[in-house]
Design goal:
406 residues, mainly beta, Porin, 16-stranded antiparallel barrel
Length: 406
């Protein structure tokens, strides 16, 4: 209860701060106001990024060779770049949901997400970005994405991110998807393992080679973004995990990539002195290809991943209890008039298989097909209707709602 009250107090203080900032700065929407441009310059539809928006984010939230009028203030210090107004934005999502897996006929899930975002330049080739979840499915979730970015280092397309981010961001960004249904393979838990491709803390380095591939390398704690321990330490074991991706634009319309991840972790909350044994470890490995095929009205995104854990239950008696997991997704997006379309369609197929080895065969399967229709009521407000059919359990989840940014 005390922890919940503390989170509510923090959320109230943060909300009050943002309301004060809003009343004095009028800095919403942050980047569109900064450059006096429509949100459609970077998004189509929100929150999905166009290629131009992805380039803008990778350049430290700056457009090359374009100055933002009156964005910074003169302070008499050539080494200090102060923002004239604090850049803020908000995202607010709400849904009405029917799920045949539950015994509720209908659920009003609003607000489903409510978060405050901020990002911008701190100086030449230095930027920051973070968001605070005021409400994530009814809880004050706090900070998720939060990092400092150093870009175009050594006069190359070489960037370094330090902070919290999703391990899968170099693949397909979960936060920018159009569907209520998630990219499930990225967040699939494997027994007691803390390793996933969702949020983690670490450092990410990206290098775009001229006329060549894009290379990304990550060094991570490997245990998510939970609270620090009594020693103010976030990592809960002595290991670090590593991820890398290489991608290449085969043509203007085709991009292919490959991803690999290696992690090692110790069991949580085991007193070695009491058990008089060696703390059990788990090694987890991911690898797999991805591809994007984009033409004027269609975009096809494909992801396949193989994961192997050698002891995800941290079981001393059977330390070689291998678990193999395979899965991925296929996503097809159609908009009749390209990024100027008022409406769009999405089809998303998720599939996950888990094989426990030792002749036991498949243990769990997640397999769904999602059909999604969206209508852009305003540039920063879209309405959605979505149905996800659980193929294995023959169940349906129907979602109606809105996604807004302002």
């Amino acid at each position: 209860m005390k922890a919940v009250l503390n989170k509510l107090l923090i959320g109230s203080i943060v909300l009050s701060f943002f309301m004060i900032m809003y009343s004095s700065s009028y800095a919403i929407p942050a980047f569109a106001r900064k450059y006096s441009m429509s949100c459609t310059t970077c998004h189509a539809p929100i929150p999905r990024l166009k290629a131009y928006g992805d380039e803008f984010a990778g350049n430290g939230f700056e457009f090359e060779n374009q100055q933002a009028t009156r964005y910074t203030m003169k302070d008499g210090d050539e080494r200090l770049e102060l923002l004239r107004t604090f850049p803020l934005a908000a995202r607010f999502d709400g849904f009405i949901k029917y799920d045949s897996k539950t015994n509720k006929d209908m659920d009003f899930s609003s607000p489903y997400n409510l978060k405050i975002l901020s990002g911008g330049s701190l100086g030449k080739n230095i930027a920051y970005y973070f968001y605070f979840f005021l409400s994530e499915r009814g809880e004050v979730a706090g900070v998720e994405d939060a990092y400092i970015m150093f870009n175009n280092l050594f006069k190359q397309d070489f960037d370094i991110y330090l902070g919290q981010f999703q391990v899968s961001d170099p693949l397909f960004k979960r936060e920018l998807r159009l569907t209520y249904e998630d990219y499930m393979m990225y967040k699939q838990p494997i027994f007691d393992s803390r390793i996933t491709l969702a949020y983690d803390r670490g450092i990410m380095m990206t290098w775009g080679i001229a006329n060549g591939p894009d290379i990304i390398f990550e060094i991570l704690n490997g245990n998510g973004i939970g609270e620090a321990d009594e020693m103010r330490t976030y990592d809960d074991d002595k290991y670090k995990t590593f991820a890398g991706r290489i991608s290449y634009d085969v043509s203007e319309n085709i991009r292919i990539g490959g991803f690999a991840y290696f992690g090692k972790e110790q069991a949580e909350a085991i007193n070695v002195a009491e058990t008089d044994t060696t703390m059990s470890d788990n090694e987890a490995t991911y690898f797999g290809p991805d591809m994007t095929l984009a033409v004027e009205k269609l975009e096809l995104n494909l992801q396949y991943l193989y994961r192997k854990d050698d002891n995800p239950k941290f079981d001393y008696s059977t330390p070689e209890n291998n678990v193999e997991t395979t899965g991925g997704f296929a996503e097809l997006i159609y908009w009749p008039n390209g990024d100027k379309s008022k409406w769009y369609l999405v089809g998303l197929y998720n599939h996950i298989d888990q094989d426990l080895g030792n002749g036991t065969g498949k243990n769990t399967t997640y397999q769904t097909f999602t059909g999604h229709i969206g209508y852009v009521l305003q540039t920063n407000l879209r309405l959605i209707v979505e149905n996800t059919y659980d193929i294995e359990n023959k169940e349906n989840r129907v979602v109606l709602g809105f996604v807004s940014g302002f």
